[in-house]
């Protein structure tokens, strides 16, 4: 089970890298057709909107997202919940600290897709 959790976390982390966030093939394969996100911004988006938003950004303006404190739970066979914290760095300081949760579903015997994602801002004292 731990190896499966590592694989899912690896997929999650790939979504944090600009080169993957702007790769249509990767995003199309990784996001479930019924993908839904409650973003840290407060907006709700689906797969089509997310693709449009991510692919419509200038390549140099996409920031690297850092993440830590991952916890994975098998909700039932073929469904995994992942929670963690993310942030960006600006002048070596953490900004946009966010609690995140993702639900990954197995779509075939070896394929996993992101079905749901939520980001909730965390106040930084």
From TrEMBL:
Signal peptide: none annotated. This is Ribonuclease H. It holds the Pfam family DUF4440. It comes from the Bacteria. Residues 8-114 form the DUF4440 domain. It comes from Ignatzschineria rhizosphaerae. The lineage of its organism: Bacteria, Pseudomonadati, Pseudomonadota, Gammaproteobacteria, Cardiobacteriales.
């Amino acid at each position: 089970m731990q190896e499966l959790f590592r694989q899912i976390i690896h997929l999650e982390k790939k979504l944090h890298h600009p080169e993957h966030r702007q790769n249509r093939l990767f995003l199309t394969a990784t996001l479930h057709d019924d993908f839904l996100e409650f973003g840290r911004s407060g907006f709700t988006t689906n797969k089509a909107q997310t693709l449009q938003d991510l692919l419509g950004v200038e390549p140099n303006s996409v920031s690297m997202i850092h993440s830590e404190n991952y916890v994975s739970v098998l909700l039932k066979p073929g469904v995994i919940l992942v929670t963690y914290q993310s942030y960006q760095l600006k002048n070596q300081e953490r900004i946009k600290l966010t609690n995140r949760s993702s639900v990954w579903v197995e779509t075939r015997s070896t394929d996993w897709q992101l079905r749901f994602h939520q980001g909730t801002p965390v106040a930084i004292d």
